[in-house]
Protein 1
Amino acid sequence: MKKLLLILLFIPLLSNAQYKGDKANHFIAGAFVGGVGYTVAKICKTDNKTAKKIGTIAALFVGGIKELSDKNNGARFDTSDLLFTGLGGFAVSFSLESLAKSNKKTIF
């Protein structure tokens, strides 16, 4: 489980070597939004699995809106940007869920 977590957290570093520029930024933005989504879900007293889903969906939603905005402004809709945003949300939500399980206490 810890190995998977480390792999997920190092994806932005690997992506910089393979992609131009902003994939790491999308991952970080997704991680931020996913963390906020997870935190809000936990404050509302949802279980860890539901909070993880909410964090991931929040990141995908915000990433999708950003890509639609890009498309409306003349750029193309980039599905790989959306994927990296969602992956960032999943990685942080998964990490927070794992921390909550390992501590056997709720984070909040």
Protein 2
Amino acid sequence: MTEIPSTLKDATLLKVVYGNYLAPRALMDVVQARRDEARERIVELEELAQTLEGKDDEFYSMLAVDLGIERNYAVVRWADQTLRKLQRRQRERRGASTAGAHSDADAERRR
């Protein structure tokens, strides 16, 4: 049996992949919640890093903490970019539906 990579087991990623089945606001809420979790984790890991800093016997632990911090910063960047893209898409779709409504109204007036 092929093992599914852990990155594909992330609930947020699954919700994003199937985002077309969610209301736009619901998907944005999912992304915002994931960003908030990552920000909280950064604070926790940075506090841990302060307690480990300079301790020679914690050198390798610090490497792992550094990875956790970087991963969470990446999640925050991804979430910010994703939210901007979702908002832009929502505006464009609203604009397209409004333009379509105007076209329908114009057609009715011409009849």
Protein 3
Amino acid sequence: MRGVYPQNDGSALVRGSVPVAALNRAMAWDLPEELAATVAGLLIHEAAAIPARGQMFAFYDLRFEVLRKNRNRITILRVTPQHAPGAPQPRPAASRPPRPTRRAVEELRIAA
């Protein structure tokens, strides 16, 4: 299947424009075809946002990692069955680190 590149570890590199039905046929997976036309569309639907490059999500017993984006368009993903050996763990979305307390800031000043 054009746009789906199976890897030796059981994962697949997938173009975001690949139809969900085509990915299901190529990899013998069972992703819902009624929620979105393309793999990128399905990821955006499930994430309820446009993910950042490097962000990972787990749903439908698969892990989706955004490898390449062009503006708001997801162009390449790595899709890995969760049961595959060495399957990567999803990383949380980027967020602001907690602000240090005033006491911690003062302790840093004293130590410096």
